[in-house]
Design goal:
Elements lengths: L1 H18 L3 E6 L11 E3 L8 H5 L7 H24 L4 E3 L11 E8 L16 E9 L6 E10 L12 H29 L5
Parallel strand pairs: 2-3, 2-4
Antiparallel strand pairs: 1-6, 4-5, 5-6
């Protein structure tokens, strides 16, 4: 009986995720004078602060925050790559054996805490889930930020779900990550169309 109730709740969560409104707001608009990227390399978003930012964190993340955050980061990167490839844009995961050049674009990002600050940190209790997305181009000393946005999507992880194993919560994480990935890929594809790089 309990398993059937959980199944109904999980299906309801996925339906909500499918209908959820994900928004992306530019904070640093992209230039119109960029060369067409030869490929896009996607990294997992940062889940926890590090260095000086970590020392100034107002509260510690729980092990569940970090565990589920890492699941979300991987699902988001995988989904962004798949959605870009579905739109005809060459995209790869960071670390794949591909050469990077001056025209290579990169997508990097970090999850933001629930208190509307810009501090890094995935928080299971945050609703919506927020992240900062950066698109960069080039390598080494020639690397530059060409676009920056904030993205948010409703959180369909309900209290207590984080206590379940990865297989149980993965469908909800995947659905929320796909919502974000679709918006990111749509924004990039729209830019490609405006530049005349694709139809």
């Amino acid at each position: 009986m309990r398993r059937e109730v959980y199944r109904v709740l999980l299906i309801a969560s996925l339906l909500l995720a499918a209908c959820a409104r994900t928004t992306m707001t530019p904070t640093f608009p992209v230039s119109n004078n960029l060369p067409r990227p030869d490929r896009i390399v996607v990294s997992d978003f940062a889940v926890s602060p590090n260095g000086a930012e970590a020392m100034g964190a107002p509260d510690a993340q729980t092990p569940e925050d970090i565990r589920v955050g890492n699941m979300f980061a991987k699902a988001l990167a995988d989904s962004v790559i798949a959605e870009l490839q579905n739109r005809g844009i060459a995209a790869y995961r960071e670390g794949n054996p591909v050469s990077l050049g001056p025209d290579t674009a990169s997508i990097k990002g970090r999850f933001l805490r629930a208190d509307n600050s810009l501090m890094t940190g995935f928080n299971l209790r945050a609703d919506p889930i927020r992240a900062q997305v950066q698109i960069l181009q080039g390598t080494g000393l020639g690397l530059s930020v060409v676009s920056e946005s904030q993205i948010s999507t409703p959180n369909n992880l309900r209290p207590g779900m984080e206590k379940r194993d990865d297989a149980a919560i993965s469908p909800v994480v995947q659905a929320d990550a796909r919502s974000m990935a679709n918006v990111i890929a749509d924004r990039i594809a729209d830019y490609y169309r405006r530049q005349g790089w694709m139809k």
